[in-house]
Design a protein that fits this description.
It contains 14 helices and 17 strands. By secondary structure, it is α/β, with parallel strands linked by helices. Helix 11 crosses helix 13. 43% of the residues are buried.
């Protein structure tokens, strides 16, 4: 779950690596290889060691366009991502040992529970290196996409949560992007009291220097064939099953004639074929724009956020939602579901409307109000901007620097040498 894979974990981890390197720290990232073979590379100002990996063919990595859904004798065949599934390193211990023996880290910041995460922790424990862990993912987020194991998803999720608490209690410091993430993972878990290390909320943060309100360029409308004379309801992110984008499409279909609005769906994912079928079935194909996958480094992402009149996040499984924060930083009011951690970003009656999970009527009502009431929209936009400013990536980097320095061993303190992360 590291760049070029597209998801919130990848975005945060890369921003953290780049940000720390910009501040003069030596940074090494260890992540699975995208081509399967061990190699080293640079990403701007820091190094990446890519460990030998194998393909996990049941979950798309978002690094390439998804293959079309196949039917055999009229039956949908589960898609297997033979070339572009998630990459996993099943036995990375030796590679990690060689990499860290050479790098000699002062501190390790772990982002994963399994495979590399386990090997990293064992190395840190053996060599007396302080290690911090950031948890980003609920097991349900991943398992909902794996239809082949759907009958076992609930017990698997429970087992993974149980394992996760046991894993977390071994770290020197634990952070999560929202208070809800801490409540779900630790406070509400029967074994949560076993975690004695400090546990703190540290926002994933966004680059406010990039994401800001401005009039979108006329070229962006032409490039993606977006109407410039209608309210635009936007969604940007993965279009996977757990994102519940079909609920947004249904809500939009109910109001598009009343509001003369247009739906903009930016991204790609495992649910794309279903959404295209749904749009055709509802007779709204001309009212919906699918852009497909867009590189996050592209300026088009920022311009497409600015195109939006209102941003909708129908997903109930986000532990923060970086894309919602980015939309807010561009001045958009929000319609979101009251699930995951979205209530920490979307405040009903202040910068948007929170709706019940999968409640099409409530989502449609919120979208209708914000696309037809410019005074309300301007009020909510101002509050979205205020909230987004509290999540600037510079604040996130400041706090992680403080945490790192607080747990680095005294013999390797910043006063004697520049710490490596």
């Amino acid at each position: 779950m590291y760049w070029p894979t597209i998801n919130g974990v990848s975005t945060f981890s890369r921003n953290l690596a780049k940000g720390m390197a910009d501040r003069g720290h030596e940074v090494l990232v260890i992540a699975p290889s995208q081509d399967g073979d061990h190699h080293e590379e640079t990403d701007g100002n820091y190094r990446i060691i890519r460990t030998a990996s194998t393909n996990f063919p049941f979950y798309h990595s978002q690094t390439a366009t998804l293959p079309d859904r196949r039917k055999i004798v009229g039956v949908n065949i589960p898609r297997v991502y033979a070339k572009n599934g998630f990459k996993v390193s099943l036995n990375p211990q030796a590679e990690i040992r060689r990499a860290l023996d050479e790098f000699q880290p002062d501190i390790i910041h772990n982002q994963q529970f399994l495979m590399i995460g386990q090997a990293i922790f064992r190395y840190a424990h053996t060599h007396g290196i302080p290690v911090i862990h950031t948890n980003h993912v609920l097991p349900e987020n991943l398992l909902e996409n794996l239809r082949l194991i759907a009958p076992f998803s609930r017990p698997l999720a429970g087992a993974l949560k149980h394992y996760g608490v046991g894993f977390l209690k071994q770290f020197d410091y634990v952070t999560m992007p929202t208070q809800l993430a801490i409540d779900i993972t630790i406070k509400n878990h029967p074994r949560g009291h076993q975690i004695t290390a400090p546990v703190e909320v540290v926002s994933n943060g966004i680059e406010l220097a990039r994401f800001s309100p401005a009039k979108p360029s006329p070229e962006i409308y032409k490039k993606y064939k977006i109407p410039s004379d209608k309210p635009i309801i936007s969604y940007i992110g993965r279009i996977d099953i757990e994102k519940h984008c079909s609920i947004l499409v249904e809500a939009f279909a109910r109001i598009q004639k009343l509001t003369k609005s247009h739906l903009l769906l930016v991204g790609d994912g495992t649910d794309m074929a279903n959404l295209r079928d749904q749009v055709r079935r509802l007779g709204i194909a001309r009212k919906v724009t699918f852009t497909g996958r867009i590189d996050r480094d592209s300026e088009d992402i920022i311009e497409l956020h600015r195109v939006g009149t209102v941003f909708c996040m129908p997903s109930p499984a986000d532990l923060q939602s970086i894309v919602t924060l980015e939309a807010m930083a561009c001045g958009q009011p929000i319609v979101a579901v009251n699930a995951g951690a979205l209530a920490e970003l979307c405040h009903t009656g202040k910068n948007g409307f929170l709706c019940e999970k999968d409640n099409v009527d409530q989502i449609a009502e919120g979208l209708y109000e914000l696309t037809t009431d410019p005074v309300l929209r301007a009020k909510f936009s101002k509050e979205s901007l205020r909230i987004a400013k509290t999540h600037d990536i510079t604040h996130t980097l400041d706090r992680f620097e403080e945490i790192y320095n607080s747990i680095i061993k005294p013999s390797k303190s910043p006063s004697t040498e520049t710490p490596k992360k």
